[in-house]
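Q: Structure for this?
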Amino acid sequence: DAGITQSPRHKVTETGTPVTLRCHQTENHRYMYWYRQDPGHGLRLIHYSYGVKDTDKGEVSDGYSVSRSKTEDFLLTLESATSSQTSVYFCATRPDGNYGYTFGSGTRLTVV
Amino acid sequence: QKEVEQNSGPLSVPEGAIASLNCTYSDRGSQSFFWYRQYSGKSPELIMFIYSNGDKEDGRFTAQLNKASQYVSLLIRDSQPSDSATYLCAVNRGSQGNLIFGKGTKLSVKP
């Protein structure tokens, strides 16, 4: 395993509140990703990072922001949670030169 | 056309049979192809990757790539009930190597 830890594992939050999910890795990988997984849609890329303070948008980035102030941590923030953001969120990392990702255990987020 | 397409299944095979999972992709510039296995309620786990046309074998698993036809497949020989899972095909896109995933094929291996 690439030593990826996601927190929290489960969260229920109310519509309109901000929420931050954390991904922590111990492998010193430069690349980190946030995906969401929904029935009927599969895994979709939200944001990714290719180094400290270097981030970019994926295909479903609206309503989400990210920050990476240290190599080991990649934070995903839902600025004002909506019910459409109820999903399972996966963080992933990969080393340079090898495009195979390793995924964290996921965060199940419910927005009520 | 979706970027990565898989038959959603479920694909049901008897124990000991060969399971064949298929994937097509739209971006001719893609260079790297991956198969992930995901058990229900768990995270995806990388099981195979292939970069060159032809076959790549790893134990009971064989990945096959045909870039001309934009087709990737995964064969599982001697299927076991423990192989029952959803199999995700992923293809790289762009200079950053971001992976685009298919929606997955659910495989059920019956004892």
